[in-house]
Design a protein that fits this description.
Length: about 260
């Protein structure tokens, strides 16, 4: 086992990433990775020193969306070849740093609890040198995903108006609340046709949470559907660089501003 990932479970359990923003979803395909990238970029544009951690341990693709080819990634960290700090990579036109994951390494998605705890402790230590750390988590409700989300001070749960997306977002919140520590779930409705439609989607999910879980997760933001998002992804460029004046860009910037104001 590497020196940077020694078994130190007691330390790891105490080392929460309080300046962390976990971006989670119960379902894939809701724009979680794109939102993580754009949110981190927006925080950097607000003058915050920001780090994006690709925590989608089995299907990582932050580097692909950004058009990066990092020499080091999370797989190498877990293999003990270098430290987490040595794996960070700057995004030249974004003003923030990235720790890339390793796509296709399904074994990384099932880290032993002790190894995951050490990784979280290392991330908390590195995160102390940043104002904000955005964690792009894997889709789904597996224990690894929920454990990473629980380390962050804030957890954004992403959904769309699709029934399956709302059902899976609800399942993620339900299972997360059973863990220790409990996360701080806040809802983000992505790809909403209008703000009013986004409000209705939020209202439906909030009602289910209030009725069955006895909580009312606040609405963190509504991101309107915008054709420029797919265009930016195809060109492997951040939306705020390629199309900074679009509706979706404005909505993510507003989300970043609210998160900064709440901190």
């Amino acid at each position: 086992m590497s020196a940077t990932l020694k078994p130190r479970a007691e330390t790891a359990r105490a080392a929460r990433l309080r300046n962390g923003i976990a971006v989670a979803s119960g379902k894939g395909g809701v724009g979680k990775t794109w939102l993580s990238i754009t949110l981190c970029h927006a925080l950097a544009r607000l003058g915050r020193k920001a780090l994006l951690f690709d925590g989608d341990l089995g299907l990582a693709n932050v580097d692909i969306q950004l058009g990066l080819a990092p020499e080091r990634d999370l797989g190498g960290v877990l293999a003990g070849r270098y430290s987490l700090a040595e794996a960070k990579c700057p995004v030249p036109d974004g003003g923030f740093d990235v720790i890339a994951g390793r796509s296709g390494s399904g074994g990384l998605a099932n880290l032993p609890a002790e190894r995951l705890a050490s990784l979280c402790a290392d991330l908390a230590a590195l995160g102390a040198s940043y104002d904000r750390v955005v964690l792009d988590l894997g889709a789904g409700i597996e224990g690894t995903v929920r454990n990473l989300a629980a380390q962050a001070g804030t957890c954004l749960v992403i959904t769309t108006d699709e029934p399956t997306a709302m059902t899976d977002a609800y399942a993620f919140i339900k299972l997360s609340l059973m863990g220790t520590p409990r996360p701080d779930p806040r809802l983000v409705v992505n790809a909403a046709e209008t703000r009013a439609e986004g409000e209705r989607t939020y209202g439906t999910l909030r009602k289910a949470c209030k009725s069955f879980l006895k909580i009312s997760p606040p609405l963190a933001g509504i991101i309107r559907r915008d054709g420029k998002v797919k265009e930016a992804i195809r060109h492997q460029a951040p939306l705020l660089t390629r199309h900074p004046n679009t509706a979706a860009a404005a909505d993510v910037e507003a989300l970043a501003q609210r998160l900064v104001a709440d901190s």
